[in-house]
Amino acid sequence: MKTFKKVFSLLTLSICLALCFMMGGCTQTEGQGTYKFSSIKIGNKNSYVELKAGENFMNYSLTEDSVVLVLNEDGSGQLTSEFGDLIGIDTITGSWALISEKQIGVTANDYTLVLDYNGEFVEFEYEDFSIKLKKVKENKLPSFIKNNNGRK
Fold this sequence. Notes:
Blueprint: H1 2-22, E1 33-43, E2 48-52, E3 56-57, E4 60-61, E5 67-71, E6 76-81, H2 84-87, E7 91-100, E8 103-108, E9 111-117, E10 121-126, E11 129-135
Antiparallel strand pairs: 1-2, 1-5, 1-11, 3-4, 5-6, 6-7, 7-8, 8-9, 9-10, 10-11
């Protein structure tokens, strides 16, 4: 009987995972996800310096966690920055919505920032900065699957 339960459970899991992948993901909403720092351009379009994650600038070590944007499935969002004194942003909480296939609007404190979006990156301009964030690929299992590493 235990063997039947294991086989049935594995078969059910396989079917559920296959359906998730065929439908393009389990609970992904277009644009939703976590985006981490990729690069920053400082200056204007004609004359700028581009810095990427892994580089140092002034007294800052730029990492993927230097700027993180989280766009939740419920429409809420949060932008955090490790170098807030440089760009004027520490943490902003607000809401977001997909404006078009190529733009996401993030609203906080009655101001909407429009992000250029291509499915892999979001990019936005703020004063003399252009910041590019890369979407973190999440390999999430459906919520009904639990980690049973410690089972007997």
